[in-house]
Design a protein that fits this description.
heterodimer, A: 511 residues, alpha/beta, Alkaline Phosphatase, subunit A, 2 domains, nine-stranded mixed sheet, 17 strands, 15% strand, globular, B: 485 residues, mainly alpha, Leucine-rich repeat, LRR (right-handed beta-alpha superhelix), 3 domains, six-stranded mixed sheet, 17 helices, 6 strands, 44% helix
Chain lengths: 511, 485
């Protein structure tokens, strides 16, 4: 019986010399089977083994010894002289409706309850929530718009405070994303990738720029407490994770109620001295572990313990608002006195900026309005509008807006057509990735402008699209970073926030 | 009689009685006269003509570089020919080829100008340059045999020099037509510009037209619709010519943007045949279009200084960053500080010459005048000092005045009262000064108005804060009296 050429039966192994392969391959094969070859190869292998044992286990580690690494961190600097030294990112989780807030479409009133033309919608794949709807009736915004400022910017009546600072904003109407659901979209906005595991913007900044102070983390996250009337999408610590970067670059969250940081207060009977003694011993053990294993995360742990120790004094000072002048409360409103409100977090963001924190991200959930837009919108705008205005105005009057970048963005926009029924009293809006409105202000930003245009249905971008990558590249640029140069080698790639696809800084948004 | 004899002698030298030479001169004359007369025979009237003329004419920029290259090569060949005779022979051929390609390029150029309906001073100059150059090349060709036979040794080198100058001038005129008047000087370093006195004239009037509309047209349109070319008979380099319009009538209809041809053309889809700016030049930015629209809407006035609903922030040109000196000798100390708790010096950017920022946020309450004095050796390299909430007092102004490269100074919530702020006057680069939350008084702040680069002064929450700006969001700098250009 004839054996197949690739048969693995050891009794009748195919002979290379019988195969239909080039003669050169046969020769190479013959050469590989000689004793000389075996000895030569094993000699080299033994040589490498000897070398690695001579070099010690250091040679096997991917990291740099601690002190050298710290020294490298200490001279971290932007690629070019930045306009902004720090940034505050107001993240509107859930996807704020651009149609009802910023993207004024007066012509839509005439389209009320008419189906949105197929030509506008194109072959777009919709979410499971509206894909099976029989029709897509246009729901014009319930609220009217007014012109504000010298630039005459149209802003919805829902945002009277934001309107007052319209001249200080660069409003981007053409932001667009590739993701259509919350988790991938919010991951994309924050980390440049829809899948979890990549470092977020704040971590990249901490990694690239280093810290401006010793007593607080470089990157802090403030969560606004839930309003159960709103449809709250989860916001998880993946969003401020440092991914494959050292965990010392991860965001540190302040809690919205109770102690800002859990277990920061020493328990009864433990004073600063006892705590210090304990930390010294723990650090010593950690250092031994590092010597033994060489895992850089051990160093991060030492650094984080030390940071927590210093935060025992810096955080109470941070959270002590008793010295704020009356003008602060006039500006931020009485809500700002209550920890966990958006206004409180905005005030906190200003205080963190004053204390040398590079990047503060404030999360406000609840913008996900699949129904009851008319009921929820005034509530959530009431919660956030004044805080945003107060923060920008406060930074401006204190001279901090010159070197602080402020970003307001969600993960996507909302559809112009109604999800569910459309009535005179209410409508809903589904997720809309093709266009949404964001704004920037502060250091390095050209303010008093509106950038990008959408079509008559606020559905497609017709001019100057800004992708999430472009958006992030522009933010990095304001902080002095070339997004193509801020990289970290991981999994064989020079990883970067803007990912492998081309991204460009939006020059027209820069001062 | 004598004169005639002398002429006879010279002519017998110059013109060996060869029939072929006479013929060559006659032919040259016969060619030169129509060349010289051509601009009068076929006038550039600014109207577009046959398409085939434009089609051929557009090869002018392609063809024109051949004679340029050849003519630049020519003197090199002649010089090198002194040592290698073969090259001199080549030079003769190159000259002949250059002449032929000159004629070809000239013809195409004329077709381009005539067919495309271009007119204007620049085109005329370039045309005349081209004609003069062609004739100069022709003369070179005729004079060269005398030179190579050593009969008249000077005529050819002189002609060659003149021809090269004509080439330089004509090529420059052509460059101006293609790229605009400020192409070469636009990105000239500011120092050279001042030295050469280019582009420093301030706008004559403060009208919206001269500050915003004219510069847009200047940057995007005047290359083809200006003094050098006036395509379609339209010039937009002055208000009068802009309002006059071109062959298709007025381009601005005051009060009705939708009827204004200019606005129609710049808002067409960019692949439209009539879209402006043409020939793949970048389109106007959306806000530029919005300004033009608003300006036309509100009467297209040459004098109105502001338009309702249009705010254009006019930033003063930022000071170029002055590089600081070399502080590499101090780097070990700077690194040491970075690792220890306490005040730090951090590089502004990866470029050391951008300077250092002094951060004191970690040492705030313990950082006083004495601690600042310790930083004196770093003084010339620090461009920004973050001294907010430190314990420093007015005594530190004596130290701070030595920070000669300081651009930004943060003194918010310190104990300074502003007494001695005038000592900062030598800090010519200082553009940002934050005194918020201090006890400075308006009397103490007054001397700051003499510092002409100091554009951002913050006095929030101080006795010096102007009452009106308590709720105002404007930087308080503007309320300090200052007269800067």
């Amino acid at each position: 019986m004839k054996q197949h050429l690739l048969c693995t039966d050891t009794e009748c192994t195919p002979n290379v010399m019988d195969l239909a392969v080039p003669a050169s391959v046969k020769q190479e094969w013959a050469a590989l089977q000689t004793r000389r070859h075996f000895l030569g190869r094993s000699g080299k292998v033994l040589g490498w083994a000897a070398l690695s044992s001579l070099l010690g286990n250091r040679a096997l580690r991917g990291d740099v010894p601690m002190n050298a690494q710290q020294a490298a961190d200490a001279i971290k600097a932007p690629h070019f002289a930045p306009k902004a030294k720090r940034a505050i990112y107001l993240f509107m989780s859930g996807g704020p409706s651009q149609v009802d807030l910023w993207d004024y479409k007066p012509n839509l009133a005439a389209q009320y309850d008419k189906d949105i033309p197929d030509s506008v919608r194109g072959a777009q794949q919709l979410t499971g929530m509206t894909a099976n709807q029989a029709r897509f009736p246009v729901a014009p915004s319930h609220w009217s718009f007014k012109r504000y400022g010298e630039a005459g910017t149209w802003v919805s009546d829902l945002l009277p405070y934001s309107g007052r600072m319209a001249d200080d904003l660069a409003i981007i109407k053409s932001t667009n994303t590739e993701a259509i659901n919350h988790e991938p979209a919010i991951m994309l906005m924050n980390t440049g990738n829809m899948n979890a595991g990549k470092p977020c913007l704040g971590s990249w900044l901490a990694y690239g720029l280093g810290s401006m102070n010793d007593n607080l983390p470089t990157f802090m996250v403030l969560q606004t407490k839930l309003n159960t009337k709103e449809n709250n999408q989860p916001v998880s610590s993946r969003l401020w994770s440092s991914g494959f970067l050292s965990s010392q670059y991860a965001g540190v969250g302040l809690r919205s109620a109770g102690d800002p940081v859990l277990f920061l207060t020493d328990p009864d009977g433990v004073d600063r001295e006892v705590r210090r003694g304990m930390l010294d011993v723990v650090n010593e053990i950690n250092r031994q572990t590092y010597e033994e294993l060489g895992d850089p995360e051990t160093n991060s742990r030492i650094a984080q313990y030390e940071m927590a120790y210093r935060m025992q004094t810096s955080v109470p000072e941070l959270a002590d608002l008793s010295k704020e002048p009356k003008s602060t409360w006039d500006l931020y409103g009485p809500e700002a006195k209550e920890p966990g409100t958006f206004a409180y977090n905005c005030l906190m963001a200003r205080r963190l900026a004053e204390r040398g924190v590079r990047f503060t991200q404030v999360y406000k959930r609840g913008w996900d309005m699949h129904d009851n837009v008319m009921g929820i919108m005034p509530i959530i705008c009431g919660e956030t509008d004044r805080g945003c205005y107060a923060l920008v105005t406060d930074l401006k009057q204190r001279g901090m807006l010159d070197d602080t970048l402020v970003v307001w963005a969600g993960e996507f926009g909302r559809t112009v057509y109604s999800q569910g029924g459309l009535s005179k009293d209410n409508y809903g809006r589904d997720h809309h990735p093709r266009c949404y409105t964001t704004w920037l202000t502060g250091g390095g930003v050209r303010t008093g402008i509106t950038y990008g245009e959408t079509d008559d249905y606020s559905y497609n971008v017709v001019k100057d699209p800004v992708t999430v990558r472009d958006f992030n590249a522009t933010i990095l640029h304001c902080l002095g970073i070339d997004h193509n140069k801020l990289t970290y080698k991981f999994q064989g790639l020079d990883q970067k926030l803007t990912g492998p696809f081309p991204a460009s800084v939006v020059k027209d948004l820069l001062a | 009689m004598k004169i005639r004899q002398q002429v006879g002698v010279i002519s017998s030298k110059l013109l060996p009685a060869k029939r072929s030479t006479c013929l060559a001169w006659a032919a040259a004359l016969a060619l030169s006269i129509p060349l010289l007369l051509m601009p009068w025979i076929v006038r550039l009237d600014g109207h577009a003509h046959a398409d085939w003329q434009q089609f051929l004419g557009r090869f002018h920029p392609l063809a024109v570089h051949l004679p340029i290259g050849l003519l630049v090569l020519l003197p090199l060949l002649e010089m090198a020919g002194a040592h290698r005779p073969a090259l001199r022979e080549t030079a003769g051929f190159v000259l002949g080829l250059a002449f032929a390609s000159c004629l070809f390029a000239l013809t195409l150029g004329f077709l381009l100008a005539y067919g495309g309906g271009t007119a204007g001073a620049g085109v005329t100059l370039h045309l005349w340059g081209g004609i003069a150059l062609t004739i100069a090349v022709l003369l070179c060709m005729l004079a060269r045999p005398w030179w190579s036979s050593h009969n008249v040794p000077y005529a050819y080198p002189w002609l060659l020099t003149c021809m090269l100058l004509a080439l330089l001038w004509t090529a420059h005129q052509g460059g101006l037509l293609t790229h605009g008047n400020n192409y070469l000087t636009q990105y000239m370093p500011a120092g050279f510009k001042r030295w050469a006195g280019i582009g420093l004239e301030a706008p004559v009037t403060a009208s919206f037209y001269s500050r915003h509309i004219n510069p847009i047209l200047d940057a995007n349109c005047v290359g083809c619709h200006g003094a050098s070319q006036a395509k379609g008979g339209l010039r937009v380099d002055s208000y009068e010519s802009l309002m006059k319009g071109g062959h298709d009538g007025p381009v601005i209809a005051a009060g009705s943007p939708e009827k204004s041809l200019l606005l129609q053309r710049v808002t067409l889809p960019s692949d439209h045949k009539q879209f402006m700016p043409a020939e793949g030049k970048p389109p106007l930015r959306s806000e530029e279009i919005a300004w033009i629209k608003a300006w036309i809407q509100q009467g297209a006035s040459p004098t109105a200084t502001a338009l309702a609903g249009v705010a254009i922030r006019e930033d003063r040109p930022e000071l170029p960053l002055q590089p600081v000196g070399d502080y590499s000798a101090l780097m070990p100390e700077i690194r040491q500080m970075a690792l220890a708790p306490g005040p730090k010096l951090i590089q502004v950017s990866a470029k050391p010459e951008d300077g250092l920022v002094l951060f004191t946020v970690d040492a705030a309450s313990s950082f006083g005048d004495a601690q600042l004095a310790e930083f004196q050796k770093f003084a010339p390299y620090v461009v920004e000092a973050e001294l907010a909430r430190t314990a420093i007092t007015d005594a530190s102004f004596d130290t701070l005045r030595q920070f000669t490269h300081l651009r930004a100074l943060h003194l918010e919530e310190t104990h300074v009262t502003g007494n001695g702020l005038a000592k900062l006057a030598p800090l010519t680069q200082l553009s940002y000064l934050n005194l918020s939350g201090t006890q400075v008084t308006s009397a103490n702040v007054a001397p700051l108005s003499a510092m002409k680069n100091l554009s951002h002064v913050y006095l929030y929450n101080t006795p010096a804060q102007p009452a009106s700006s308590a709720q105002s969001t404007q930087p308080i700098a503007q309320s300090i009296a200052r007269n800067t250009p």
